[in-house]
Design brief:
Largest sheet: 10 strands, mixed
Strand content: 5-15%
Helix content: 25-40%
Amino acid sequence: MPPPPHPRTLNDSDKPTSDHEAVSGSMYHSSNQLSQEQISHLLDTGSPAAFMTLYHHSILTVSPIDGFHAFLCPHCHIFIKSSISISFSLLVAGHFTVLSNHYRHKSCTAQHARNEGSNTQLILRQQCLNSAPDSSTSASCPSPSSSFSESESSNSPVSVTSSSTISDSGSHSNPTVYIPPLHPPCHGLPFQWDLAPNSNIQVSLPWLRTLHGRPDELPYTFNILDGQAYARSLDCTRFVLDTSNSCPACVALGPALDELGKLIPLYQPRTRRSLKNVLQLSQMVDEHSKELERWKLKSLNDARSISNKLSTINSHSALLMAISQTDVPWLQRILQIQIKNGAGINTIIRRIEEALEKGYKPRGYSNDAYDLVLLVYRIGGANLLYALNRRMSIPSLRTLRTRLSFVTIAPTIGPIVLDTISANILNVIVGPRAHAGLQRPRGVSILTDEIALEEAVVFFPSENGVGGLCWKHSHVIDPILNTYDSAVQIASKLDSGQVHLGKEMTVTVVHLFGEDETYPLLAAPSCKEEDYTDWEKLINMLIDAWMTNGADKTVGPLWSFATDGDSTRRKAGHRTFVHTMLDESSPLYGILADIPGLNLYTGRESITLDFDYKHIFKRFCTMLRSSNGMVLGNGRRMDSTKLERYLTWLDDCDNEKAKRLLYPDDPQDVPRAIELMRAIIKLGRIDPTKPPYTPPCQDPNIEAYIDFETLRMLGDLFHNLLEPFVNPSLSLTQQVVHLSTFAHLLFTFYRGHRRSFMPNQLYYDSQTLVKNVIFCIAKQQRLDASQPFFLLDVGDDAIKLLFAFLRMCGGHNSALNYKQAIDRLRAARDIGGVYSRNPDLRHGHRRLNLSRTEHLDHIHRDMWSGDILSHNVNLRACWLSGRDVAISLLSGSPTYTEEFDYEGIFSNPNVDMLRVFGAGLYPGITEDEDEDTSIQVTFTPPESASVKGSVPGVATNENLEIADENPILDLEEQLESLTINDSTSESTCSIVQNLEPSMPPLPTGPGIRPNDFLAVEGKYVHKASFCRIYFNSSFKGKSHDRLRRVRGFTSVKKIHRTEDISSPDDAESIFVAGSPFLTLIRLNDQTTALAFLRSTSIVENGVPRTGINVDTLRSPAAKVKISGDLLLLHHVPVVDLETSMNMWVWTGGYLKSLSPVPKANVSTRKVIELSVQGSLTEPVNPSVVAASEYLPNEHRTEVNSRDITWALKEDVLEAASTTIWKRLDDLKVPISSITLLSGRYDGFPYSKDDGTPALLCAEAAQALSEANVTNTEVLCALCHKPTSDLRSHMGGHILRSIRRVPDELVTPVGQVLPCGFCGSSGNPDCAIKLKKTKRATEVITNCPHKVPFKYGFAEKGSESRPCRNVPVVCGLCPHRERKTDAKPAIWRYNMEEHLSLSHPEYAHPGKIYGLPLPLHMIDTVVITVQEEKKFSVPARSNPEKPSSTHTANHQSTHPPAPTSSGQKRQADVQAGQFRLIISSSNGTKRARMAKD
């Protein structure tokens, strides 16, 4: 480095004009502010603040270098470059930190020492120059070459000052003298790069780029001198002209060198080799060498691997050959074990060869294998498992028994007890769930239903007792079968009817919300005689058992009790679960208390009642398919007749499909019910006033439009009921909104029409379903709001899957007795457990297409895509949203606003969705209910079981005990000697227990339990075989067809014939159901007026029709009945001024009567439906007009939304009245045939504006008065006299005709089996049938003179009306119908004639010769003395006189006439006397006298 310049004072004229001059300037500047001592002190300090002070006093020199501030060090006189850009001013001390760190440190001190040596040589040279007068160089003076080395050459002009110092005043004592610089050689620009560790500058330079002619040649070269790298430009001058260390060309290389130094370390392996330095090239060579070595090793390894693979392929080829040549047992298990043990392929081949030779079997099986074996055993049976074990080496049944414990379900032997339920709770639910680690509590629902049983007694070895006896009455016996006397006692109770065989098995299971499994709690045989009190006790017992065993804590709390539409369980459930108002302390109160209209009554632990939603679907459709249909809106009825016509309006529905929907072979078909409901929803969206339903330029069909308004309301109801259960995309919030809408619509329709809309029972079940859903969601929010709530978990549909398993386990024999049912129930539970542990084994329904209705019956939780998390639901908001939707729907319907004013209705705290009319009344529960027409399955009382029969019973497969081998002891041979002695009584058996001491020892041996045998006739008989022979000798199996197996099943398939319409002319001559017509109606005061009706049904000779020819309709011989609703007309005077024509316009309303709600001070209005003879009707084609043009506002409240209605001219109505009366008179139709309308009603007869009655028929009124026909009387078809009791009156004619007593008749009584209503014979319309149900007995006939009567009272008779001539069923005729089907009947007074014609071998009161009548037939032929006296018929004295030996002793004698209370007893006495006569005349030993 050159010596430092001496300080000098700079004047304004001396300021540097360039950066180079600024660098060469003086270090110190004069200042008036700082003294020399202060400057020296600051320099000694050397801190950043000190240097900043010197800078601000212009003493420290700062110069820009490469765009950054550079500080000239006062000590070593070199510039120190900073990182501060020249765009920033130096204002803070931190800017001078770089100078402070350098000042007087190691590098600074070293440079200062070098500067001192250079100054010394310069001073000596200056002295030599001063002594010489010229510029020649003296020999004594050192030459530049000897005085300066290349490393010490100066880069700037050198200035030398005298030895004098700066004075205190700041002036110099001597002036500064400048020496011209020398011209040292230029070695290039020295530079330094950041080097990599363990490297030097030589290997860091890109030497390849210095070669001439290379593509990446640099414009400079590199030199290394004493370890210092230099870069020399190709334009280098080779010497330095100024004070710099390098020539200007080399100095200009600085930025390029810096850039190159930064770029070289960034080179990647893919960078061209010509750009890299020596170190990088060396590294690249090393890497290539390593890669080459790696590939060499890889090639060697590959060669060895290929050789091994070829050997392995050969071994596997041998393995495949071995497998293909023969079947290897349990190959998968062999491979698993060998692979687990690390065996090679050759070892595996040897093991397979051993297996082929039967010399090797694997040991140990996985849990999946045991589950598979259990599934095979439970579905396929022991034989299939044995075959698979022999062929495939799967675990055997013995192994399965040692490794797994089967589900144990305790059977009900005798009455239901708490211990049985508790045992099942612990063994079936609590224990298995604890073993499986299922600890999450879940809501629990108890489900119950029945499954048909074979009526047979079975033996349970584990209980040593007999099963299959009804749980209600089995408390009267001891079911334990210890001795023969025990069997005799049970048989006697069965024979006497004190206990019955189970017709069905009552199954109660537990279903957990959020899971698919069901857990059986109870399985008990039922005789179907249980009443609601029995079920109430059973339900409480189930709850007690659940709580007592702690299942509410280990499994979950009870939330609901679900059942189907059974009336007994409904009433029991209501009494158990709808009796306590939700308490304010309940955690549910805050959620549910503010929901208006929700019934808050629950049972213990807030348990609610529930009904199956699929049953409700089916019952709605069953109700629609009936002739009664449903009444909605302002009284419009929708039934199958209308639906059959309108369904064909859909694009995808033809006549055949419509009939399949309305009259299915199986009314329990859920997909078909859903399809019908969806079709109705589509119909509700049709506008019948638009094409193609109404041709252009034609008036719309008012009839169709009003029907479609009803269909629209019905479709809205069905839509909101179906969507929550069949649309998987709905969220739980949307589901609740739909259910709320459904509940409000249902409430409004039922409140307006009650039973005309739907049965009370169905309404109760539907609203209870919605209530339970709301409660269960609230309970889920309290239990665990983060869990989803799957709506399809409600109801009892889960138990149907269990029943499917029960049937499936039976294979080809789907029928089952009680023991088989228990075993299959255990098997079904095992199957369910396997499927829950192995979901991949379940076939499921993986290709369900929800556009197909048959798949909607199999929706499962995995298919639901909507958000069903319970914490995302606000129940009150959803409920109110549903209410608003219902209000919007009802606002556009013909429904009065006050009927859906829910805020006003529910402001009464005693009124809610279930208590429709308040007063604590629940539909279907607290009223004297009619039969539920939405359920077609009826029940029959149990019959006394007979334990004796002459035909041996067929053995059933009852022994389902798990066993690996066939039974060792065959007992069938021991039973061959057992016979039945006919001479014993019916309650005894010829099998007599041998109590002699010579009895052989009890059987012993493997698998034999001595307690399972009973001593009979000196032999031991297995108790199961004994029960089969002794109790089930008259056993008859039930049908495998479900429709035949269901009790009381009644088909709804009734084809409604319609007249063919082949041309438009034919269409005009056809009267279809729904068309309007005119007829005459008589009132109580004999007033007769013309009425305008709309037909609802057409019946011809008892056959329903959808249409009929008009000529046939008017013919009295056709026996046509038209039913219809009476329409209200308003008189509009003088519409046409030219003709002065008055009009009668329909107001849209129907004639209605008040129908009081029982036990409540409330009445509803019911549409009156009248039935009219077809011959007394006149079809009419009214005009279509705008209601607003004819009717005032007060008469248009019930007009449809289209404002269209019917209008008839007054002269047309008067002509129709005259025509009907003339036809009645010409055809000699009895005047009493005019339909009677009892009571007084506003709106009929029709009246004018001034209240004057109009459209009256004076001729008819006069004829009624002359015939003396009262409002409750009808004319007898034989004597033409009025009577108020036609059945008794006609019975007198018939009895007098049979006994040949003279009678005053216009028309004689029929000769053969006369009708009890009209007295005629041979008329097919008079054929009569009798249908007995649990609730009532229905008489079915199409006789035109039929009158209603109460069968129960008529059959018993009374003092005032002793006639007992009612239809009775002949027990001797074969009947293929079920017990609850309608059976052909015979009038009681005709029964003797029927016996003589159809059963001549039997005797009867009019013929004592012949076989004795069976006991159940005696009462059907007996006529009491009171009946004979009532009709003036003498007692029969000599019925076909028998032989003299019997005549004297058995003359027919009669006791005194009984009172009304003894009428039935009198009939029994006479029946007993007749039995005695018949028995004596035939000489039998079965004579029995009736007990007094």
